[in-house]
Structure to design on (236 residues):
């Protein structure tokens, strides 16, 4: 797969504290993370992971609360706030690979809301689901997006259902089990999020066009698979 090279700028010391709801800073930091991952530059990646957490943590109305870099910046721990009217309240933080955390924020920016759904498959598990409405075509299991699960394949936790890191998820045939399955996966989520962003764009900034949003979300998800998929437990 050919990926377009990005030309980000590095951040000066005077730019360490981003203003609230500054989309340009989040976009810049996400692009920096992509480039650092492609260069296998651990120092820059760790610095950008810290900045991403600061930027998202300062974002008004974000439901990704108190994000903190962990594992040398390879992952982010965050509490996902959601409406527990139909599904259980969860208070424990979840862990995401840093690049996917950036993608998750971009999806939230497009209007995707987060819900935890309880499922049973020998063990009680809570699966994070993103949705735009109650319509079936607007519901996306986050684990399926991370794994880029094929149609009728389910996405399952290996052990800890608090970890959505690529290394801690597995994909297998649904086989009638109560696991997140269905036809909607990564590409469908990208297209639906782009539609949502185009609608919600004026609530943010005009600086990121829907086409640029589509490209950025695609790039960060593709790089998530390449970078975090091969890193395992080893920091860059």
């Amino acid at each position: 797969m050919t990926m377009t090279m990005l030309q980000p700028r590095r951040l000066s010391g005077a730019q360490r504290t981003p203003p609230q709801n500054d989309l340009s800073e989040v976009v810049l930091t996400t692009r920096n993370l992509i480039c650092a991952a492609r260069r296998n530059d651990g120092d820059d990646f760790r610095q950008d992971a810290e900045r991403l957490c600061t930027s998202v943590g300062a974002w008004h109305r974000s439901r990704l609360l108190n994000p903190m870099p962990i594992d040398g910046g390879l992952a982010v721990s965050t509490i996902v706030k959601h409406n527990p009217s139909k599904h259980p309240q969860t208070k424990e933080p979840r862990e995401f690979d840093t690049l996917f955390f950036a993608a998750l924020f971009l999806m939230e920016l497009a209007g995707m809301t987060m819900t935890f759904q309880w499922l049973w498959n020998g063990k009680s598990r809570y699966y994070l689901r993103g949705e735009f409405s109650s319509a079936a075509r607007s519901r996306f299991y986050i684990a399926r997006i991370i794994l880029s699960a094929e149609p009728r394949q389910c996405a399952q936790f290996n052990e800890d259902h608090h970890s959505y890191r690529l290394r801690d998820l597995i994909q297998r045939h649904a086989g009638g089990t109560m696991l997140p399955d269905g036809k909607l996966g990564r590409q469908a989520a990208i297209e639906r999020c782009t539609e949502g962003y185009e609608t919600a764009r004026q609530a943010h900034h005009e600086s990121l066009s829907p086409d640029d949003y589509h490209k950025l979300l695609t790039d960060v998800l593709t790089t998530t698979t390449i970078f975090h998929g091969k890193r395992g437990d080893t920091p860059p």
